[in-house]
Amino acid sequence: MLVDWTFYLAAIPAVILVGLSKGGFSGLSMMAMPLLSLAVSPVQAAAIMLPILIVQDWVSVWAFRRDFEPRNLLILIPASLIGIGAGWMLYSDVSEALVRLAVGVISIGFVAYMVIRSRGGEPAPSQGKVAPGIFWGALAGFTSFVSHAGSPPFQVYVMPQGLSPRLFAGTAVMVFAAINLLKVIPYFALGQFSRENLMAAATLFPLAILATMAGVWLVRRVPADRFYNLVYAMTFLIGLRLVWVSLSEILS
Q: Which of 170, 177, 199, 210 keeps 20 to 30 A from 61, CA to CA?
């Protein structure tokens, strides 16, 4: 796989999108797993991406070390343990087709949510409550464990709070840096860190660091509306493709 050009054709843009997301363009990472799942199985894609995510977390945590909302961290990170535990217990019982279907459905649902939210106007900011935070935090932990797709639940909970773009990005960085570290032991226990997967991830580390640094730089300078619209459209189309392929496998 290390010399398979089709893998890198998907992996390079996926890593760049995750790096930009870690750098402040929150939500762009949603496209990474669907994109990578077109080249390798979603299970292997998740195993390759986790070391890359952790390397990118080191860069983004430093960049946003003063910009985060502590209350969200205190609610969402402990709650994510519930979802991570559930993902660990159910992981071996779920087929690759179902994981691919879940990634596709999450991708489509996320784009639909963002479109509906943008057309509904901006509601008055409200502080996040504990009970909804536990629910959305647990869901973020589960979807992040299965397919590194924790952004939608996180955004559903945090977006109504009306945080500034940098504070929102920093909060997301801290939450998912913690979640990614919490996933390491379960991934080891499930045998996901094979030599092949780790070597594939290592070849992408330099790009991952550069993409994250670029995201930190760009988030302060570039209006992201058009860029987001393009990425959302591509995420939706890739999600449809994954749903179609997975349903064909399940129903065949």
A: 199
